[in-house]
Amino acid sequence: MADKQELPSNWGRWGADDELGTLNLITEEARARGAAEVRTGRAVSLARPIRPAPLVSGPFAPTTGDISPVQQLMQYTGGAPATADMILVTNHHVHSTHLDALGHQIRDGRIYPGRPLEESVTPAGVRHGSTTAFAAGIATRGVLLDLAFDGPLPTGHPITPEDFEAAEARQGIQLESGDALVVRCGWAYTIDPERPMPGIGLDAVRWMHRRGVSLYAGDLGDAHPPFDPAVPGPLHRVALPLLGMPLIDVAELEELAAVCAESHRYAFLLTVAPPRIHGLTGVPVNPLAIF
């Protein structure tokens, strides 16, 4: 069991009003390092495609099938010079690639960097630790550590620093402060009680803290069920609220892994430009790896 005092934290590191968290580690030098990785201009999306579902209710609403994270209401379909629709988006959906803001997770009644929850997250929106912090977008060097290079990770595998360092050695690359860490486990994000997910262990979060990871993106993140009931979900319960590390959940990494293996290049410019909608706990994104 992990002692609460052992947990890594960035509370106070960048001031009591900070909302960027580990994005502070993306310096001009880190951005330039990412830009230097662009040689061919090839771009790969890290987002899962989403097919909207009709926004319907009542006795004719479908009762079977997966629920889409985006529901669509068509307003104009003909007889006008344009078509138009409205959409309802569910943030933090398991079928949507999305970016978690720092106010998404609570630690002991507070959000990063120690602000009281009641002052930060209200029925009218998020006042501190929201998507407002992503207004300038994110651009830095991304590094793929492909842990599924010879097949999906085993059921219930706890990802450790040794897994990360073995991938660095195998791929001939080293993560640097300000880089975004992209982790491929080779799993689709589907909770199945009969098939426990692998996931990031607490020591792996400590490793990210030591290495200066600015952003995490993965096809998986936390294990289900959790490895340690005392610290369930180290990414969402430690890295996000204590380190202030934004998370890209449910990334689609198969094409990226294929391009990296084909080109023998595991570093790229990673760009994330979410919609400039303030006051949310998260937002769907389409991250791009540019080679």
UniProtKB/TrEMBL annotation:
<protein>
    <submittedName>
        <fullName>Cyclase</fullName>
    </submittedName>
</protein>
<dbReference type="Pfam" id="PF04199">
    <property type="entry name" value="Cyclase"/>
</dbReference>
<dbReference type="GO" id="GO:0019441">
    <property type="term" value="P:L-tryptophan catabolic process to kynurenine"/>
</dbReference>
<dbReference type="InterPro" id="IPR037175">
    <property type="entry name" value="KFase_sf"/>
</dbReference>
<dbReference type="GO" id="GO:0004061">
    <property type="term" value="F:arylformamidase activity"/>
</dbReference>
<dbReference type="InterPro" id="IPR007325">
    <property type="entry name" value="KFase/CYL"/>
</dbReference>
